[in-house]
């Protein structure tokens, strides 16, 4: 799933490529992807793109000339969605069906982009709205972790709001916007914290350590993604991971010195997480509930 760093890079890329260009067509390839009916997709046609913003993991393309704000094309790529840019959009008509193509946006000079989604579980969401905050998932987003409002004190308030595993809090979009499964693994490894640590056990020193890790990991990832075209962002993300999706591989440790352990994996919610026992859990592997169920 694209997370804050990749979505920020996509926002910057689309902003650079589309701002000032006029939308000439918006063709739906997946009827289930469109979640709104008014304004209509057709209302985007003939309007210039005036900017592209990010809200957590959501992308927001605004339209309309100065003084005449038009509808916003807002979309969430979900787990398997992506943006594919075309310098020249294919001439083949878009036909709703089983294709990965969810939406094609054509610009007046024949450039444009596709929203695509792999797999059979279609969760990519497209909204056309006058105000992005009319979308409940955006209106209820938590604090922006790279914004000035995200301080160690604010994080401390979130940690004490409810006693839960820290991995779950990091992924909760109503608490902190933009972090998903991959970067929560990376943040917890950087902070050398167990993903199952309970939030109300954090003292000020531990809270400051976690705050620094969140800001550092996300900032580094944004910098690494910056300037890359959409087609290269997935590979850049994979290369930057230290523990996520590296099960069984040597833990990279710190300061260029491997710790000597390997990356472990356990089930968490609807996915899996990766961590290093030596760096994060005092050398003790976490119990994997999947194995526990098999042994019953």
From TrEMBL:
Residues 242-281 form the FPG-type domain. Pfam families: Fapy_DNA_glyco (PF01149), H2TH (PF06831). The keyword Hydrolase applies. The keyword Ribosomal protein does not apply. It catalyses: Hydrolysis of DNA containing ring-opened 7-methylguanine residues, releasing 2,6-diamino-4-hydroxy-5-(N-methyl)formamidopyrimidine. One of its GO terms (biological process) is base-excision repair. One of its GO terms (molecular function) is 8-oxo-7,8-dihydroguanine DNA N-glycosylase activity. It comes from the Bacteria. SMART domains: Fapy_DNA_glyco, H2TH. Keywords: DNA damage, DNA repair, DNA-binding, Glycosidase, Hydrolase, Lyase, Metal-binding, Multifunctional enzyme, Zinc, Zinc-finger. Residues 2-124 form the Formamidopyrimidine-DNA glycosylase catalytic domain. PROSITE patterns: FPG_CAT, ZF_FPG_2. Belongs to the FPG family. This is Fpg/Nei family DNA glycosylase. It comes from Pengzhenrongella frigida. The lineage of its organism: Bacteria, Bacillati, Actinomycetota, Actinomycetes, Micrococcales.
């Amino acid at each position: 799933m694209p997370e804050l760093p990749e979505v920020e890079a996509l926002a910057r890329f689309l902003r650079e490529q589309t701002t000032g260009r006029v939308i000439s067509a918006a063709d739906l390839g997946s009827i289930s992807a469109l979640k709104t009916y008014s304004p209509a997709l057709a209302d985007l046609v003939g309007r210039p793109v005036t900017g592209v913003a990010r809200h957590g993991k959501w992308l927001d393309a605004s339209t309309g000339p100065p003084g005449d704000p038009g509808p916003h094309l807002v979309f969430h790529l979900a787990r398997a969605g992506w943006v594919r840019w075309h310098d020249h959009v294919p001439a083949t008509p878009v036909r709703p069906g089983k294709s990965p193509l969810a939406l094609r946006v054509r610009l007046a000079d024949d450039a444009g982009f596709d929203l695509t989604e792999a797999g059979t579980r279609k969760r990519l969401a497209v909204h056309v709205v006058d105000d992005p905050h009319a979308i409940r998932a955006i209106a209820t987003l938590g604090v922006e972790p790279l914004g000035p409002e995200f301080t160690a004190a604010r994080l401390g308030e979130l940690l004490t709001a409810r006693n839960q595993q820290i991995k779950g809090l990091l992924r909760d979009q109503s608490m902190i916007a933009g972090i998903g499964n991959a970067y929560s693994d990376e943040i917890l490894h950087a902070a050398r914290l167990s993903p199952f640590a309970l939030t109300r056990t954090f003292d000020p020193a531990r809270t400051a350590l976690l705050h620094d890790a969140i800001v550092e990991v996300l900032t580094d990832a944004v910098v690494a993604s910056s300037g890359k075209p959409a087609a290269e962002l997935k590979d850049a993300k994979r290369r930057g991971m230290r523990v996520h999706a590296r099960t069984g591989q040597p833990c990279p440790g710190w300061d260029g010195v491997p710790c000597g352990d390997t990356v472990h994996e356990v089930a968490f919610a609807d996915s899996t997480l990766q961590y290093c026992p030596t760096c994060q859990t005092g050398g003790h592997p976490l119990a994997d509930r999947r194995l526990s169920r098999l042994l019953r």
